[in-house]
Design goal:
The protein is α+β, with helices and mostly antiparallel strands. Helices cover 45% and strands 14% of the residues. Helix 8 runs antiparallel to helix 9.
Length: 285
Amino acid sequence: MNDARFGIGPVDEVLDRLPLLSSKRRQHAEPLSGAGNRVYRLRLDGRDFVMRFPGRSRYITVQAEYDNQRRAAEAGVAPAAVGFDRQSGAIVSRWLAGDTHRSARHVDDDDNALAHCLARLHHGTAPFTDAIAPGRALRWNLTPSVQGDTRLIRLAARADERLRDLPASAWVNCHGDPTAGNVIGRSDDRPAPQLIDWEYSHRNVAAWDLAVACNDRGVDAGCARAFLAAYNAAAGAYGAPAVETSALEKLRGVTALAGAAWLMNHHGDEVSVNHAVELAAHWLD
């Protein structure tokens, strides 16, 4: 164990319990912003890491999140996960230099790079374990908010129907939340973007991740088709069948409703919640 301490109780305790990190010199620690999670950037023996403590959730399995990130890292689409503390659920990963992707209303080089990254994740990694079950998570998130709201009840029923229609035979590894803030762009020493925050990783149809990315970027149907074309071209190199436009459009409403539900349960502002519900209604009604 290292005698030097950061003075941040939970962080020091986790490092003490992780054999690969406990002896490293503790040089610097700073808290980072995190939606529903506690996140710290650490410097250990001159190298930078991120320690992420999970928020409280009834439907996320942190062990599966860690295992899935490790599989994704082996394929080059995630930072290396170097430690998992079962007692606290904290995951320690390599720090990724680079900027997060911005949300944009057009398909540019960043979005084409993301399309290639998702194709590699979906078709070039070892099979995932579900860290989250999308249907159960959607229903759990909506339950506190649906009471008495006939519009949400109707949208939730339609989303449930579409989730039941997903063909399990076509499932691939999904990140679950490839929004701009979870995509670290290319850098001088890394030619492709990588994905962070794997708590929503699961097995699903490829269109799930594509729908989340399109909704986050606010793209219209034409731009979504361009993004889908870039993805299908990349996925074709793995011998994967093309994702149809209809499959993408079917899931844009479901993923938008999932986003609205998350905002409702994490005290999102009213404008953001209403926008997400309107987007869900556009694709589900």
